Amino acid sequence: MKRTIINILIISLAFSGCKKILSPADENNRELSDIYDNAAFAEGLLLNGYVRLPISNYSFTDVATDDAVSNDPNNNYRLMATGKWSSISNPMEQWTGAFAAIQYLNQILEQTDKVTWATTGQYTDAMFNDRSKGEAYGLRGLFMFYLLQAHGGWSPDGKLLGVPILTSSQNAQSNFKLPRNTFEECVQQIYKDLDSAASYLPLDFENVSAVPSKYAGKTTVADYNRVFGAYNRQRMTARIVNAIRAKVSLLAASPAYNQGTTVVWSKAADDAAKVLDLNGGLAGIAANGNYWYSSQNAGEINGVASGVNPAEILWRGNVGDGNNLEKDNYPPSLYGSGRVNPTQNLVDAFPMANGYPITNASSGYDANNPYAGRDPRLARYIVVNGSKMGPSGSTISTKVGGTNDGLNAIPTSTRTGYYMRKLLREDVNLNPANTNTQRHYVPYIRYTEIYLLYAEAANEAWGPDAKGTHAYSAREIIAAIRKRAGIAQPDNYLASISSKEDMRALIQNERRLELSFEGFRFWDIRRWQQNIAEPAKGVTITSTSFSVGPVEDRLYQDFMHYGPLPYNEVLKENLIQNKGW
């Protein structure tokens, strides 16, 4: 965990874009004190936090779960799920990147008061300083969350441990043998950081017509907007901080961790409700929130270039034109590599359009016509045999012995009988004669995640119908999400659920469907303490048969509900490895 002093010149090259900064000192070396008179240079420290966020691209960790496999034999998550996961080889590892980011963030927090952030405007220097602190505290709390999620776990002697808490930067004289703090201490430090962040940041970066009370009488509208206005959208805000707090509380309250923390389900529900109330409560559920990525929303996607977020998106990355996502995941007949293959396990999790699970006698499920009458999300998210896909609506046949789209036909064919459709823009054309690109962006936090977070926590705290101090219940949230999905109304299956346990199973399944392929399933299975070794299944379709069978075993052991610390870190004195690793 040793961290060296940053190379300020490298940061300026990466982030400043200002040629003046590149004027070298006598030996082309920079000192940390050089940031005091160079705000762009100083901001490089802060921006290191943003560029190291592990959510900037889709990771498709679903391949490590019962929801998907990959046809790429070298896929890290495939290797991990099939027995190659260790403290030396860990594709889920966050230790290196997160602690590097925290080092930079600690440095800016230590130095920001000495930086001349602005030389013009009324109170602008102080406001830029406030913004710098708020962003750094918020990012530090977020990276601590990633560390806990990936590396928190139980020690051999029965203690729930987190990671070493670092609130000051390290240098050559620092103690690099710090022990792990408890999980609870880490959670409380995250809350402290998030509270600090919220005290410095606006709810959103938007232009105002009147200076907020915090700065009233100190600055002008123009200068306030210069610092906290719309130009800075997608940086850390108090709204984002609130959502991070809810995610932290959900993790800590979950079965895998709640025996080692003081965080209870009602706190997780309260924290989520704070976000949802600012979004209009139930009325804020976006109508297109379950297909926000689609070419059906091309106009909306193209419009985010202005910095405005669609109704479904709380926080997102930058927009960009490309077709790599489609190249990786289109079927071979559409010139794709079909990398992520949804499993039969996931397909079976989609209910019928009447809302009943396919295992329920009232569902009307026909095993001989398994895709008929299903929840509309199945067709939106997964390509099944006979689906139409792509810019020209080509029919995809996954039957054995047909086209290259068929089961295991070529190395880029599906291994399960299914292809991923979710997240892809089907107005992308990969035909070499007419290739195009389309605009994409990656959400960091979607509102649907927070609605489902509230439903889970509220049900655990108060049951399906109680509301705590809020205006909506777990049942009402799930009812709205299922109605949006296209479940027939009235939703008789939802109405039939009366117990917390049955509602829990439904909420978990809705989360599985709504957040599929977005990097949640692996973490959810672990925090719920469910079976992480469920084998991945697929379907074999011929002209005369339809048979379900195993595709890939999941070679996990029970202790793997908690991820390992990196092997090299454990070699250091005082750093205890999680049990089993």
Notes on the structure:
The protein has 581 residues and is mostly helical. The chain has a domain at 8-264 and 563-570: Serine Threonine Protein Phosphatase 5, Tetratricopeptide repeat. Helix content is 37%, strand content 8%. The protein has 19 helices and 14 strands. The strands form 7 sheets. The chain has a two-stranded antiparallel sheet with strand order 1-6. Helix 2 (39-51) packs parallel to helix 5 (124-151). Mean pLDDT is 94; it is low at 1-26.
Low-confidence stretches: 1-26
Radius of gyration of CA atoms, rounded to a whole number: 25 Å
Strand order of the largest sheet: 1-6
Share of helix among residues? Answer: 25-40%
Name the CATH class of the domain at 8-264 and 563-570: Mainly Alpha
Mean pLDDT: 94
Tertiary shape: globular
Q: If classified by CATH, what would the architecture of the domain at 8-264 and 563-570 be?
A: Alpha Horseshoe
How many DSSP E strands?
Answer: 14
Q: How many angstroms does the end-to-end distance come to? A: 19 Å
Give the count of helical stretches.
19
CATH topology-level fold name of the domain at 8-264 and 563-570: Serine Threonine Protein Phosphatase 5, Tetratricopeptide repeat
The computed structural class is mainly alpha
Largest sheet: 2 strands, antiparallel
Proportion of beta-strand residues:
5-15%
Main location: membrane
InterPro entries: SusD-like_N, SusD_RagB_dom
Domain RagB/SusD: 328-581
Keywords: Cell outer membrane, Membrane, Signal
